[in-house]
Amino acid sequence: MSTSPPELIIEAGRTERQYWQDLWRYRELFYTLAWRDIAVRYKQTAIGVAWALIRPFLTMVVFTVVFGKLANLPSEGVPYPILVFAGMLPWQFFSTSLSAASDSLIANANLISKVYFPRLVVPTSAVVTSFVDFLIAGIIMLGLMAWYNFVPSWHVITLPLFILIAFMASMGAGLWLCSLNVKYRDFRYIVPFIVQFGLYISPVGFSSNVVPEKWRLLYSINPMVSVIDGFRWAILGGESTLFLPGFLLSLLLVIIIFVTGILYFRKVERTFADVI
Fold this sequence. Notes:
The chain is about 70% helix and about 0% strand. The protein is mainly alpha-helical.
């Protein structure tokens, strides 16, 4: 005896109460969108996913030469390429997620305007797709460790915690920007500027310990400071230290951005189909 599949009824006022359950019901759509984004990103490319390795590697080389060789900045007792790449990993994840999530709703305008599904699926799938690039780029970090015979300390067991913080920062900022981009298309021009400017004001190519002590707390207003410093503390150990007051301030800002991003997205989500 065959049983019919459960019937989903969409009623006014009901979807709000069942929104988070709907996210689970539409998990197959999430998988489909994520896989599609991965396939499209590397479709008809000569070297495919190797681009996820080439970009951070070349950036690491440039930063190593500029900050490590020419500026001769301290490397916290580890080879400078490892110092740079420990900061490059979370930054690449954040910047790629920001770019992908901010444009995700516009790129799926036809889908959003025709059928119902929790719109949160779209930017979330974009962030998860960027996380795949993050995992691929991690191969370079393992290669650098093997090349320099570098063995991480016990701090490395805390790395999943800082990956979670990086995800919250990426998701929160992505939700804000994709929501605003639906109504104000100017944000498609603002996001590349944010990514480029943020690369230079974040401690990617250098250790945040070079910032004078009196400016450390102010510098930590940048939410990515906690993410990058946390990654370095977890991966490098040894002489790498966390400026705890600044880390807590930066972490607080990440949490605020994440929570308010979700709240704002949910507030304007019902208008997406009309405005987009």
